[in-house]
Amino acid sequence: MVISCSKSEKLxxxxxxxxxxxxxxxxxxxxxxxxxxSKINETTGLIVNQNNFYRYITQAEAQLLQFGNKxxxxxxxxxxxxxxxxxxxxxxLFGFCTRFExxxxxxxxxxxxxxxxxxxxxxxxxxxxxxxxxxxCWIGGSFLxxxxxxxxxxxxxxxxxxxxxxxxxxxxxxxxPVRIYSIDxxxxxxxxxxxxxxxxHSGTTGxxxxxxxxxxxxxxxxxxxxxxxxxxxxxxxxxxxxxGNFKVENFLSDYTEFKSKxxxxxxSIYELFDxxxxxxxxxxxxxxxxxxxxxxxxxxxSYDIVNKKxxxxxxxxxxxxxxSNVTFLSLNxxxxxxxxxxxxxxxxxxxxxxxxxxxxxxxxxxxxxxLFLLENKGNKEFEDVTSKYLDGSSELDNTYYTHFYxxxxxxxxxxxxxxxxxNFSTAAWESYKVISNLYWEKQGKNFIRRNLNN
Length: 454
Ligand SMILES: [Ca+2]
Ligand SMILES: [Ca+2]
Ligand SMILES: [Ca+2]
Ligand SMILES: [Ca+2]
Hints:
The chain is mostly beta strands. It contains six helices and 28 strands. The strands form seven sheets. The chain has a six-stranded antiparallel sheet with strand order 1-6-5-4-3-2. Strands 17, 20, 21, 22, 23 and 24 form a six-stranded antiparallel sheet that branches. A four-stranded antiparallel sheet has the order 7-8-9-10. It is globular, with a radius of gyration of 21 Å. The N and C termini lie far apart (45 Å). One calcium ion is lined by residues 207, 209, 211, 213, 215, 240.
């Protein structure tokens, strides 16, 4: 399907690069400083994104990407990815702007379709941009780069939660499946729908059946309060035939048994990664954790069982997972707070050859960030080593930064080890300060928080 009605125009005003972020070391072609992983892990969209990550977009820059008045279209820091779509060696940006009916009033957003934007040479150059119509009202999910159809070019899988505002406004925006967008060197954009229409807070991609092509997992975050059909409540795998055509199957090999016990299974974050070095992708998942209040939900008896833990489902290369082949992570309690998972990233921080895990989370209303570093001890055991190795692992009062969705492991300071750089902070229309150059510098096994004061 070809997207209708697109036009090119100059971005006005152009995004500015903060003084603290000189572009003098922005070489052409763009040279990734991403941590490198095993071949199977390099198939994941998360890592392809990390390979095309230069630095995070600040809230000030994001606010310059808004356009229109009534309605106004505003850029959410989370709804975007950078990649060199036209092959000129510079990173372009493909992102989404949410529609606000009234401005400056908040609270009437995501009711009607937003717009995609495509910006040429986002971090340098002319920044010509193109606005692209869509029927998507809300994304708040994932933009993942992968070559799904084997043509040697990256497409972008967009996972959305289009029904996000339905309960708030009493409206009926349809659920929309995963969409794979192809962007050619002339910035022409086409897409195809794959999988099922679900409310998805994130997405993950990678070769889950080890046949050399990129598959997809789509997992709902159930917002419906007990009225949604059964097909909206559980995850799916989308298995690629190598040409970008997908066979949709139940995610669990024990689906029937699981469904008989649990009303649904919601996650906010799920990421494929091989966490036990067997060359088969595993899947880390989670939503609420920490001190979660006991909620009596007659519509959802599974709430206290499967929706309050972070776990790893161990992959067997079949393309399916089994709910009994799981390890639940044991995290140190953080001030007895109720936390929600916002991101999971991977690094071998102790350089012992196994993959360790960094979790990002938030408290919800306060928009804090709380990070957890988990050391892989082998034998599918992980130890919370946050207090030992991760300086400045939380900020609760939003003085300098708010919550974020995607920690990236790149060698920011060029000294050969992989530092933590936040990515995908909160929406640009929220009034939290997001400083321009936050990162955690790697020193030995330790991560030291830097640049809180600029
Ligand atoms: Ca595959
Ligand atoms: Ca594995
Ligand atoms: Ca390790
Ligand atoms: Ca470094």
